[in-house]
Structures are given as C-alpha cells and as structure tokens.
Amino acid sequence: MGTIWIREFTGGLDTRKLPETSQGGTLVRAVDGHINRGGEFEQRAAFVPVYTLPKGTVGLAFTKAGPVVFGSIPDPGMPNGVAYQRLQHPDGATDLIAVRSFDLFAGKIFAAGEFADGKLYQFYDGKRVTHYGSNSAIVPGAPVRTFGRKLYYVTGPNLIYSNLADPTNFDPDSGTTRASGTGATGASTSTGVGAGFNDLSEEDYGSEDLVAIGRYQNYLAIFSDRTVQIRYVDPDPALSKQIQALHNTGTISPRSVTEFGDTDLFYLDASGLRSLKARDASNAAVSTDIGSAIDVLLTDFVAGSSPADVRNAIGVIEPRDGRFWLAISDTIFVFSYFPAAKVSAWTIYKPGFKVEDMIVLNRRVYLRSGNQIYVYGGLGAELQYDATEAVAWLPYLDGDRPTETKTLQGVDAAVRGSWRIEIGMDPANLAASDKIGEITETTFMANRIPGSAQATHFSLRFRSHGRYAATKPAVLGSAAITYLAESDKARA
C-alpha cells in the first residue's frame, strides 16, 4: 500500500508543466484563495460593498482624510466618508470621463484628467495647472509621479518635471530658483532647481513613446512598451542622467508598475509579469521572470481581454500580508511571497465585478466598479469573510509510479471549515471528476474518506463550502491519497 502525501502548497498555481507532470506542492487551479505564511491554501476575505456613489463621478484616489472621487459637475452629494473633487475642462462644459493618474504632493492630489473631447488636463488640489510656458514639448501628460520634491510625468518621448516644491509650474523659462525648503511661494535664493524636460529618445532607442514611471531604489524607471530607462534625477536638472537602459522589455499598462519590497519593481510585460531587481552589489537592474509560474495563463488572459482593460491593469500591495495584486478587468492575480517559509506562490481572485480603480488606504484595499466602492475585508478591525467558494486543484499525482494502475483506498485532508472533495483520474480530460465526499474537520486521526476508483494518476479537487467564521477563513492544510498499486498486489 502506498501513500501520496501533499504536505503543503508553497508552489501555488503553476501552469508551466502539464497537469500530470507538475509537482506535488503546486496547484493547477487556485481560485478565490491564496497561500498563507504556513504554505496552506486559504480562502480569501470578502469584497465588502461600503459606498454607493451618485451618478456623474469617475476615478478613485485618496488623501489623508479618506477616499476621493472626481467629476466635472457640481458635487452630486457624496456618501459620508468619501470626498469629491471637481475637475473642469477650460470650456466649463465638456465632461470628465476618467482620471488617468494621480499622486500626492504635499498631501494634496495632483491628477491628470481625461475629458470627452480627448483632451488631457492636469490639476493640483482641484485647480487646473496652466503654467507650462511656450515650449511645445511641454504639454499635460500621464502618468504622474512625486519624487524628490518635484512632480514628474511623461508625454511622448519626454520626461517632464516641475520646479522644486511647486507642482503647478512646468515652465523651463520661469526663472524659478528656489532653495530646498523655501516652499512653493518662497523667495528665490539659489539656482539650478527649475522646471524642464528630457527627451529620452535622444538618449536611447525605443523611448519614443513613454508610458509609465516607477521608483527603482533611489532612481526613476521610465517605461515604454519595449524599453526601460533607469535615471538618476536631481533637483538640479543639470545633474540628472541615465544610469542604465534595458531593451526588449517594457509595458503598455502604466498602472501595473508597482514597487514590491525595497528592491523590486513589478510590471506587466507582453511576455507576462516581470520584475526589475538588482543583479548584484552594483545595483544594476535586470528584468526577471517573477511571473513565470503563471505566464502562460496570464498571457492567454491578456490576449482574450480588451486593449482598454489591459492598459488599465492595476497593481497594488495588499498591506496586511504584503501580497502583490494585479487586477485586469474582473480577475486579480495574487502573489504571496514569504521567503522565510519558502512560499513564492500565485493564485487568482474573482471578485465578481470589473475592477476599474484600486487604491490602498489605511491598510485596506479599496476597489471601484461602476458606482460602487468595495473594501477587501471590510472596514472593521478584523477581515470579514463570506461564503465565497475557494477552489484548489492538485496536479495528477502518481506516487512516483506513473505507469502503474493504482486502486484508490481513501483520501485524508487537514482542513478548517467545510470542503467538498472530488477526484480526477484522466489527464486528457481535465473537466472529468468524481465526487468523493465532504469533510468538516481533519481526517488523519479518523474518518478517512474511502474510495475504490482505479487510475495511474489522481488529482484531488477541493472546494470550500459556506462560511467557516465571520473573521476566519476556511483553510486546506495538507492532503494524502492512500492507494494499492499493482506491484504491491504482486508482492502480497
């Protein structure tokens, strides 16, 4: 008699191999759950609707006071807890249709708003920015990024930056020469801290159409769809310079660029999810395949999504456990990384709505879909859980005897909550499975679920059923398959 023991699921979702050649400890399907710090598969928390917005608003941002939405009409009446910022077209009539990007500068929102006529305008604290000067290269753009007491953004091949401590002035000829600490209206006391721009296409090919900005260590990483330039930027523009350029990698999804930890910068590339990180002690950047376990799944998903949804892919770091989330339309790809426990695992959330905007505020993830704002886990002190069905499919396992027919004797599992168990036995037909039973407690000590099926490979499928507790998730800790192989019968 043999036993296949799956002790943990530290590998998470892995689509690199066929289901019948994937290793134990990985999953071939992992939906609405994640891998916890112990390597167990755990049900996700609830996406709790917390604010219903009136018609006529777009976007989702935040200040220290709370979430903020935008519109071009007078305040339509916000629910308690949500602020409204009016962004108006110069003609006072054209509707705001989207906020393409925002960042905080001195605690106030700098936003790039897109209007129904296709024009893009920038706003600081709700007031339209107009100080660009006469240079035709300096026009409003997005995304925007605060860095080193200046406001940076990209448009075409140009990286554009404001005067020091003044995000409303981008005019290179403004003569602003403020010293550090004097503030936006302080007296001019030194030189070399003014506004300006750099044409990055003059420094490296592939930078003719810049898309995104991210922070890489103490530098800025400037993305096109096929090039990344790492730049040192100084308050004195004369001291700014290119540090490194990486080719054949980039992004078309500006909001996917997300700082992960102290040294990584994640982004959605045409080939999957990638990371910029230091190659060695020199801190030179290299693009790594952090998403390799799901690249096939992710690239297929991107290929089946609309171009608008791909451009709007949004990355955040879920603050409680530090998981990276990448939301594309109605799907969130989740990366759990706990190196001390050797957990490096992808899973998927299906929230049940299309994610249009997503922010992190007060250690919670806020998501907007239509006129509804959701909070992952709710606004209470503890995460809230509901009856979301978490699904985990194990690979087709063979007990290191891939050619032998085996007679199933029984299945055991360590769980919290109620789980339905099915078993697949035909790698050529992934959808085919037989129900085994349902368990509500760990079965290793007793109550093994008996079985009598025959196959060379077995794939256990687990589905959580109902809510385990209001503030605790259902958990799948480990599983075991007991079987009798042909060679065992012969020896007997």
Map the helices and strands:
Elements: E1 2-6, E2 12-13, E3 26-27, E4 29-31, E5 33-35, E6 41-43, E7 47-52, E8 58-63, E9 66-71, E10 83-86, E11 96-105, E12 108-115, E13 120-124, E14 127-128, E15 144-147, E16 150-155, E17 158-161, E18 196-199, E19 212-216, E20 219-223, E21 227-232, E22 241-247, E23 258-260, E24 264-269, E25 272-278, E26 285-288, H1 295-303, H2 307-311, E27 314-318, E28 323-328, E29 331-338, E30 343-349, E31 357-361, E32 364-369, E33 372-376, E34 391-393, E35 406-416, E36 419-424, E37 434-439, E38 449-450, E39 454-455, E40 459-464, E41 475-485, H3 486-491
Parallel strand pairs: 2-3, 9-10
Antiparallel strand pairs: 1-41, 4-34, 5-6, 6-41, 7-33, 8-9, 11-12, 12-13, 13-14, 15-16, 16-17, 17-18, 19-20, 20-21, 21-22, 23-24, 24-25, 25-26, 27-28, 28-29, 29-30, 31-32, 32-33, 34-40, 35-38, 35-39, 35-41, 36-37, 36-40
Can you characterise this structure?
The longest helix is centred in the middle third of the chain and has 9 residues. By secondary structure, this protein is mostly beta strands. It is built from three helices and 41 strands. The mean pLDDT is 93. The strands form ten sheets. Strands 1, 5, 6, 35, 38, 39 and 41 form a seven-stranded antiparallel β-sheet that branches. The protein has a five-stranded antiparallel β-sheet with strand order 4-34-40-36-37, with no helix packed on it. Strands 7-33-32-31 form a four-stranded antiparallel β-sheet, with no helix packed on it. Strand 19 and strand 20 form a beta hairpin.
